[in-house]
Amino acid sequence: xxxxxxxxxxxxxxxxxxxxxxxxxxxxxxxxxxxxxxxxxxxxxxxxxxxxxxxxxxxxxxxxxxxxxxxxxxxxxxxxxxxxxxxxxxxxxxxxxxxxxxxxxxxxxxxxxxxxxxx
Length: 119
Prior knowledge:
Structural class: mainly alpha
Shape: elongated
Order of helices and strands: HHHEEE
Helix content: 40-55%
Strand content: 5-15%
Oligomer: single chain
Radius of gyration: 21 Å
Number of helices: 3
Distance between the termini: 35 Å
C-alpha cells in the first residue's frame, strides 16, 4: 500500500486519481438522470426542456455513452471510480521492484529478470 515512488509521481497519481473520480461521478450522474426526450446523439431538441441533472452536457454525454456502450456505461463509470480511488490511496498493482535482482513480484508470482553477465 502507498506505493507512489517520487514526490512528482505522488502528485501526478493523486491528480490523475481525482480526475478519474470526478469523471466517474459526472458520468454516473448523467447516466442516472438520462431522459430519452433530452437532446443527444442524433437528436436535436429545444435546450429549455432538458431534464438531465447536468444540463446539455450531461444529456449529450449520457446519450453518447448509452448509444455506443449501452448499459455497460454504468460499469465503465464504476471502473473509473475504482481506478481513481486506487490511485489516490496509492494501492499498487501488486508489482514490487527489487533493487539488485530486477525481480518483479506480480500477484504473488516471482518472475526474475536476472543479469547473467559476469562482472
